[in-house]
Amino acid sequence: MAVTLNLRQAIVQKVTNKPDADIIEMIEGSIDYDERALPGLGVLFEMIWKESDNTMRQQLVDTLQHKLHEGQGPQ
């Protein structure tokens, strides 16, 4: 478990105090590229999920369901 926490901490440190443009660039640079970036995106998603109310969570799930039904999951 300690490895997971250290990974989370490293990812949070990487984005802490970064301007919005840098965070957007990091996210967009991780999508559809190297799978090693997926844990980082997962940590960011976890942070968003924890701070979201039920309405936002449902919107996220609806978006995922829509993409899955379109067959637009990861290639």
Automatic annotation (TrEMBL):
Keywords: Sporulation. The keyword RNA-binding does not apply. It is found in: Spore core. InterPro entries: SspI (IPR017525). Belongs to the SspI family. Coiled coil: none annotated. The gene is sspI. Its main location: other. It comes from the Bacteria. Pfam families: SSPI (PF14098). This is Small, acid-soluble spore protein I. Induction: Expressed only in the forespore compartment of sporulating cells. It comes from Paenibacillus profundus.
